[in-house]
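Hey, why these numbers?
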Amino acid sequence: NQEESTLKVNVTGGTLVGNTKLYETDVTGAEVKTSLEITVAESVGVTFNNAVAKVGNTYYDTLEAAFAVGGTIELLKDVTLTSALEIDKEFILNGNDKTITVVGKGLRLFADATINNVTINNASSAGRCIDTRKNVTVDLNNVTLNTTSSGNNQPITVGGSTDGTVMITVRLST
């Protein structure tokens, strides 16, 4: 008396590779007839493979989207921004030795920030890597800021043209 069972596998995104045949035996060693249904659906949302940043267990395909959430942001790959990025939520950026390439006024900080283990480059004329505003506290830990163009380049602008107190702590940074 042979029993039949069905195993269903759903794959979301990615590629199914390998043998799709299923062999199964019962406790006596007799072969059990098993059919295998595999459904491969198109990937929905952002996954580890196409993400540039992660906040908690959520992946983001743009750095802008991760900064909009705030919190602890893990940079997963090198990123190039096409415009200055205004950040108004407190954050910790763990750069994982990656590089962020910015333009114009770079990362404009309107909230407290801790930035760790990252290189920020800006080749724009009169470019900034970090531009602080208002009352903010910024901690830079093992951060490299590079401005390489002509003009009034400033790797970090403290306070800009706004009133307020800016506190910056720099550790092992260039």
Summary: The chain has a mean pLDDT of 80. The longest strand covers residues 91-102. Residues 63-69 form the longest helix (7 residues). The CA atoms of residues 8 and 174 lie 55 Å apart.
